[in-house]
Amino acid sequence: MPIDSEYAYKAKAGTCGPQSKSTFYVAKKGTFASLNNETKFKNWIMNNGPIQAGFAIYKTFYQYKSGVYQDMGGNKIEGYHAIEVLGWGKENGKEFWICKNSWGKWWGDNGYFKIEKNNCKFPTWGGASLVNIND
């Protein structure tokens, strides 16, 4: 398992590889958690850090720039997308999840977005893992 800093994300087609001489770790022990409700999401984030989740993508999501994203309905699902959930909050009476997208800093709010809770079938799924590289 390589460390994240050696495989920096580049939003373009091509091959991936280490940025320099890489240090690799072998995971011998670990934990995977299937997270299927808001309480489990929040507990995992507070105790262990970000989680991975998936949700339905609508056309309006591509144009997101800032604020709390909410699809107003009437749009056809374009597909599903995996993102990283970092936290949650409340703004102007709307509860939301704070997420990081994989499309680069040019998209959304410097690569991040807020999505209203219970919108866009969010989250469709969630999971996280902990890996112990010392054993």
User: And the CATH topology?
Assistant: Cathepsin B, Chain A
Provide the CATH top-level class. Alpha Beta
Note the beta-strand portion: 35-45%
The neighbouring-strand order within the major sheet is 1-7-2-4-5-6-3
What integer value in Å does the Rg equal?
17 Å
CATH architecture: Alpha-Beta Complex
Number of helices: 2
Mean residue pLDDT: 77
The unreliable regions are: none
Sheet/helix structural class: mainly beta
The biggest sheet, with number of strands, parallel, antiparallel or mixed sense and barrel status, is: 7 strands, mixed
Instruction: Supply the CATH superfamily name.
Output: Cysteine proteinases
> Roughly how much helix do the residues carry, as a percent range?
10-25%
Structure described in brief:
The protein has two helices and seven strands; from the N terminus they run βαβαβββββ. By secondary structure, the protein is mostly beta strands. Helices cover 11% and strands 38% of the residues.
